Structure formats: C-alpha cells, structure tokens
Predict the structure.
Amino acid sequence: MGVKRDKTPNLKSRILFEIICCVCRILFAVAFIVSGLAKATDPWSLILPLNSYFVEYGITAPERLVTALSLGWCAVELALGVMLLFKFFIRITSLISMVLMVFFTILTLLNATIFTIEDCGCFGELVKLTPWQSFAKNAVLLPMALCFWYRYRPDRIFAFSKLEFFLMCFFFTLAMSVGTYSYFHLPAIDMLPYKVGVNIAEEMNNARAHETSEEVVLIYRNRRTGRLREFSLDDKMWHNDKRWEWVETRVESDEDGVEPMILEFYISNGEGDKTAEILATQGKLYMLCMVSSEGVNDDIRERFIAVEQFAEKSGGKVIYLTPEHLADNAPTNLYNMDSKTMKTMLRADYGLVELENGTIVGKYNYRDIP
C-alpha cells in the first residue's frame, strides 16, 4: 500500500510565497511611481544630480543629452511602476526592475564609499537622501525585485492585451508631457528654499542659527537607584544634590555636516561679496539669470530688454546674474552667481527672479516673462 503524503504544507508555502511576492511588487511599484512623479514635476531635481554623476565619473555629456536622459528616465520610472502595479508585461517589467536595481545598488554603493556625490536625485526634491541612505533604500528594494522576478520568470514574455499596451503608452506619454512642460516652463510644485514667498535673507539667518545652535545636556545619577538621567539647563529638578549626583555635561549641536541649501546663495562682482547689499535692496529688484551669454538668443534678449524698460517705468532695479567671468569693464549691474545655485533657484537656464524687499514674489522661465 502506498503512503499518502500531506500536500498541505507545500500548499501553505506556495500561498505564503505568493503573498510575499505580491506585497513586494506593490511596494516596489509605489516607490517607483512616487519617485517618477516627484522628478517629472521638477526635472531639474534629476538634471543637476545627473550632471554631477557625469562630472564625477569623468564623462563629457552635452546639456541636451543630460536633459533628454532625465526626462526619459522620469517617464520610464513612472511607466514601469504603473505596469508593475497592474501586472502589465509582468515578465519583462520584473526582469527590467531586477536589472535596474542591481545596477543602482552598485552605483549608490560606489557613491557612498568612493565618490563624493551628495545627492542621488532618487526622489527629486521630495525626499533628500544621503549616499548611505540611498544605498540602504536600494538594498531593501533589490530583494523585492528579485522576489517577484523569480515568481514571474516562467510567464510568457509577450502575454499582454491591447489595453495593457495602450495604458503603458499613455502613462509614458503623460510622464514625458509633465516633465517636458516643467522643464520648458517652471515646476508646478516648488519644494526648495527659493519658492515664492520666501525672504532669502531671513531664511539664510535661520539656517545659520540652526547650523550653530547648541544644547547643553546635564547628566546626573540618582543617588538611590543609581540610574542616569539627562536634564536641560532649564530643568530645576537636578538642583536637589541630595537626590542627584552630577556625572557629566554634554554639549549637543544640530550640525549634521551638510550645509543648508539656502546658504549657497552668493552674489559677487569685481569688488567682492554683494549678497547682503543685493538682498537689502528696497522695492522691486529684477534678477535676470543667464547661465551663458552665448546662449542668449533674440527671443531672450527681447524679453530681458522688456523687463529693463518696465523696471525703469515702475521704479524697480535690474541686475544680471551669470556664472561667467566678469571683465574689468563689465556693466555695474552685472554680477556673478554659481551656475548650480542659479539653476537651483530658478529651475531654468534663462529667466527672471523677482524680489521685493528681499522676498521672492515671482519666478519665470524666460518664455513666461510677463
């Protein structure tokens, strides 16, 4: 007589594996969708880190190529997340996800150990990650990708419907459209310190205060129980020396080793630092930004001239900002600003930042200058 085997344990294992794969796929898809949307609404949050990657790895890439890669990656990331979420092209998308995560895990490990790229641009400006945090994030996502890739690897490669193909194209086109519009105009959502309504001087002072703020912590031992306890200077309980015995005093600083972005704001000319002087300007100040004078075409020139004419009539002041070297005979209203800071502030190569008493009241890509 044959011995009947209990198949229940195997069935339970398969069901558990299916649940784990499903959870991994959904979490992975949500991470990609959030990341893709964050960068699509502000493509400069990927363009700037991508430029840093190329510089760090010694790769020379034209600006247009970097822009195209950034916009394309935002669309791919969002489309891939949506397809994983709804199980479209599941064998292909799971394989692509696994390969991408292997690549990015190695890349972020190199950034954390060898290279010096501070911002990976993984989630745009929505969430800023240090190199080690970025590696840790990928180290969590990689096993998820391996899990659902292993689950769906027996599936047919081209098993998809016309609806799935249409939806894939739709989400890819949507992400490309949002990213392209945000690049040629301005991001719809500004999550940076230079958003409209911010007083730059006040924000810089607050950042400096936070950077240097310290807290004195007093550590005492309970004479009866022997346990240690921390007190602030304002706490009066530690004054009871019959109950508390002093152990040590510790000074804690909020300094985290990373300079706040707003402190990178710096304007100068041949005479030196002019940041405080510019920010103290009363009334309207129109800062016309140009990453390169060679790229100023007739359209940009006409719009900048229109701003100068409007400022002259309304009593405002106009200055030009450029990262290029200033000649000795440069106009008095021409100032220097680092190109990365300028792009971070404006989110464009050419455009206008409008200040009123040091507060940002308007930002415009040159195409949208009113």
Summary: Residues 222 and 244 are 5 Å apart (CA to CA).
